Amino acid sequence: MASTNQTPRTRRHRSAVACRACRQRKVRCSLTVTGVPCAGCTQDAIECIVDTKQRKGTKKIDTPTSHRRHHGHSGAIDSNFANPAAPADPIPTRPTDQSRTPGAPLFDTQARDTTRIVNRSTSELEVNNMADEERNGLEIASAALGQPESVGEIPFYTGEQTGPTSALNICSHDHSLPKHFLIPLHRTHLSDEDQDFLRRKGVFTLPSKSACDSMIEAYLVHVHPILPVIEADVLVNHHQAGKLQDYNLLLLWSLFFVAVNFIPATVYEQEGFASRRAMKFTMYSRAKCMYNNGNERNKVVLLQSSLLMGFWHSDMDEHAQPWYWTGTAVNLGQILGLHRDIRASNNLSITDRQQSFWCRLWWSCFFRDRWLGLTLGRPLRINLDDCDIRMPLAADLLFDTMKSDGSTIASYLPTDMNRLAEYWVMLIELSCLLGNVLTIIRRPAGRKASLDEVEGLERQLQRSRLPNQYEVGLTRVARFYSHHVHLHYQAMVITFYRHWEVEAREGTISTAKEGWQQRVRLKADAAASRTNELLDTLVQEELLGFAGPMTPPLLVPAMQVHLHQCRLGDSLSRRIRLNKLEMCMLVLEEFQKTYTVASIYRAIFTKAIQQIFPGYSTPTMRTSAAATPIPESDTENHVPTMLEGETLDTINSGNYQLDNYGMAIAEETDFMDFFMDEGSVFNLWQTWNQI
């Protein structure tokens, strides 16, 4: 009998690390990594047999050495979890009286053996990983040299002179290897555990056919013309063939999430959702689940999905998701080299279609970066000095309107798609100007712009290309997007002029020209009034339903100007300004039925107005004069609503007084000074924390 201090004997033989078939062929066996069956037997569809070695002093156990072949790698993983004593790589049996201390549990010995197997498996896995890594490097080098070993599928960007393939330039005769080329996409397969998790999350269960039809139609009509981040003909081909399940699920849930904003109420009700927001949350949750757990390796798909998920707002993460997802998309675009001119690479393997599509993706990233930088008061991520990609053309938005067989997908798109493509190019041009505006007004104190610089930028704004709002024959969609481009322009103009009005008032910019300060103030005021005219047009033509997640923030600059004017002038001018501000609040009320961001802006401005007019109650479609008919005698003496329980006497007893129109004018507070600062109103989240 073994003594109590006897330690387990160390195995001196080499355990089996290959199945019989791989040994006979003298090839590497994946047994230690994948378990039974190995990858080779799985591919050849043969039985995976592992020969165990007989230990000295061990009784022969009458068990078959051939293992039943499982279907897939995950089956082997499951069997290991179910029976730890019988791992995929068999552990030789040893007598219990010689392998462990008397009284010690049996699993101590099994644990030691398992540790040896794991260590050996880890070593084998590291060797395999290094081989795969070298193979990937060879694929990149071969593609860069124009000698690809297999068909490239995804773009790869080598970077500038210090990039990973710069060493190959030394071996090149003309030192001009392409910086953009295609490399193979190595897809990974989900394990059974991951598939089960995703299945329980519902990502493999698509909505009903009618709901899918409605969302695809809504997406292509309302979203694609302004954010063309998918290839429309590919989506339509899958839809018409009834193979949506074969379309990229990450991309599908992402576009479904945005499309929910525009579907009829009957669609989400038939799907069992209580509201549009509830269905939107479910679509976003499934897209995010696929993004995090779907093993998607195509960076183009990840970029597309990130841009679409950038429209998500939630108070659970302080409404930071648009900034996060858009930043992710910009990073992916720069990794792929979409910011550089692909034509300079002279790579014939990259087609004109791919170049147009990548151009669309990059400028969509740029568009979101500029307008989120304005709305959220955040720094710009994209520096145009780093980019030499060409400006987009209308043709870049139209290349996928034709199917491969020569037919069109016109039935899925607005009839005047050509006009919408021109509007999209105008938006990108305005976004470039907006970047110049934000850059110059956010300079540090020591590098303030001169008056000549300001006037030079003003001339660029005045030369902006805009749609003809009075063009006849446009569809309702085209009319909305025509007004939408103008809303972007007015928001940019207000941002520009209001800043210099403040700078001139504080004396931080030299205004030698007489009346310059008054001129910029009047132009900002005119742009704000023009914004109200555009909103009135959208309401009168019943076009508000076409508004997307990017529309509510465009109202903020005009509302800021109206709020500022409520503090100035006589009582009549203040009341007129308040009426203009209330009109914007009513439009935000309509938007907040769908968009969370509209609710946030509405709450912030309500608090700000109450600093000027204590007792002010936010107008609604149920109580405001704009929505509810009021008897003629009442309208003559109408005053803004006060808080319940307040009277004119109680208001007069406070720190404010009534003007001739019964308006309570409060003393100006630090909150109002902070809120009206031109840089803080767009810094939404800091303002939100103040209320």
From TrEMBL:
Q: Which InterPro entries match?
A: Fungal_Detox/Toxin_TFs, XnlR_reg_dom, Zn2-C6_fun-type_DNA-bd_sf, Zn2Cys6_DnaBD
Q: Which GO terms describe its biological process?
A: DNA-templated transcription; positive regulation of metabolic process
Q: Tell me which SUPFAM superfamilies the record gives.
A: Zn2/Cys6 DNA-binding domain
TM spans (from-to):
249-268
Query: Single GO molecular-function term?
Result: zinc ion binding
Superkingdom of origin organism:
Eukaryota
Question: Which SMART domains does UniProt cross-reference here?
Answer: Fungal_trans (SM00906), GAL4 (SM00066)
This one is known as Zn(2)-C6 fungal-type domain-containing protein
Organism expressing this protein natively: Aspergillus brasiliensis (strain CBS 101740 / IMI 381727 / IBT 21946)
Q: What is the lineage of its organism?
A: Eukaryota, Fungi, Dikarya, Ascomycota, Pezizomycotina
